[in-house]
Give the backbone structure.
Amino acid sequence: MGDTSRHKPYKWEMAVDLDRCTGCEACVVACRAENNVRISGEAEAAEGRAIYWIRIERRWEGTYPDVRVRFLPVLCQHCGEAPCEPVCPVYASYHTPDGLNAQVYNRCVGVRYCGNNCPYVARQFNWFDPQWDEPLANQLNPDVTVRSNGVMEKCTFCVQRIRQGKEHAEKEGRRVKDGDVTPACAQTCPTSALVFGDRNDPDSRVSALARSDRGFHLLAELGTEPAITYLKKV
Amino acid sequence: MSTNERWAQIPQINHDLLMPLKQTSRSYWVIVGLLVLATMGGAAGWVYQIETGIGQTNLHKPIFWGVYIGSFLYWIGVSHSGTLISSLLRLSGVEWRRPLTRTAELMAVSAVLVSVLFIFVHLGRPWRFYYLIPYPNHRMIWPNFRSPLMWDAGALLVAAVVSLIYVYLPMIPDFALMRERIGGWRTRLYAGLALGWRGSQTQWRCLNRALHIITPLLIMVMVVVHSIVGWDLAVALVPRWHSTIMGPYFVIGALHSGLGMIVVSLFLLRRIDHLEPYITPDHFDKMGKWLLATTLLWAYMHFAEGLVLWYGNLPDQWLVFRLYLEGLYAAPYWSAIVLAFGAPLLALSAPSIRRQPAALALVGLSINLGIYIERLLIVIPSLGHPRFPFMWSDYLPSWIEVTILVGALAFFVLGYLLVIKLVPVIAVWEEKEDRIYGAPTQSRGADAGRTV
């Protein structure tokens, strides 16, 4: 059947360079705009219900006055052995052949077990129907479903962009090239701390970074095989 | 007592045990009215929650499960013990079980219904509940049987069906009796439910055989069901949940709270229906001994879990346990220990207290309160303290949640109150069997012909 490498599955992964992250949260804003993430407002945020698919955790190191703040962007780790997947009673949380950890909104009944079982607390729940103030309602991304009340959601690695990239590549009869697909967070990161790509392509930037000796995985001891490699000089 | 004297007791038994079905006091209807109001309040709260969103609870990330799941765990426990204790006593031929079994079984059925209710209350999109049912559909998607929640659904279904059969079988001779003795609209109902029971030797043989089959099955089903409920938590990666102790712990905790609840209901029914000649201080004494045993077992489970966590000193696990011992949750945790262990241990160790029905009912209440707090403490602190301290959080239920909890409690009591107007709370034929055939004849079984 011709070129077999064209049909080899993709394995989407990301590298997060903590030595480059400045904690500016541009990724959080870009993700919100790209993925129609609901705007929760101050009151809901205070209740712990603000939805964000990527968050910047702040950590303080040292003692006063010699204090340094460190930033840790946390998003869905798209685990190879995802704890959220087997516990879903209706297959709303499942693994795609590309290694993505997908969430089928229409299938979700809201038992929220996946949310409990995600050690990274990456999963976000819609406690109410979403609302956007005018004119924000006019800027919704037509490629992304708006999630209703009672449904779990989380980072998709901008699956709509991945789909688009794959369709383009397929039309031209080739594999997706490194840099063809960039999620909103990575695209907007001013310091290029976030790098996305196909790990099955040994020459991709993400593959090179993942092999770096600065690399580690969050909660690697749990054996979840995260698709995100964090980089930090120790 | 001569044979004739023994048989002469029958009209009195019929009178005493059927009286509550024939006469209803005014205060009964007042209580039923209040319970209906409270149940409707809970239902209204639920409708409001469905209409506006599950956000009417105080749940938030990362505490995705709260009092609804805690209540589910609690009620399934109460139900579990009802059938388990009844079947254990029946299987081992314990004679003093006779006035208690019906109460325990009725409680099991009402409690299992309430616990199932909480699953639906908990769902984010309850109108899509049928996704959890394996039905044929054009997308060929089935429920995910790897999910512990599906095991749970299966377990609950089995528990409910088996409990219903188990409560129904020994009622058949009583239905036949009431068909003959109670007039009005109920005669036809009882005639249907009695399935043409005439008390023939063949029919008794069938009934006994059926009970012989279902009783041991029921014990196994109940242990399995409750282990599965424990595994709901244990298979998760959540600190403290992820432990093999959860299965046995839930079996024991359920037994503990269920026995407590039986004692409470025995005390109330005895008082309301004037059953003092049937439910005696002896019965409370014996139930008290059972409770003493479960009190110690329950405490052992806590100790075993705590010791291992403390010695292992794994940061994420021990951190959660320390929250109980000396942190944020110390007050509710130690109250639960006092309510479900300390106080019962002291009270039940004294034979004179065990023989006081009112005191035992208080102990039963105390145990149930303690276990309820304990159930919430299993669910909430672990979820609120995931491995990322950045996300740590705390939770108290909202008014809507409390309204639904109260409504569910009222629904439980209401169901119970309504059923005891349709069925005698003491199995009439079992009581007669005891009075007439006297001391235990263990061989009593298939070939013991008798009439009621």
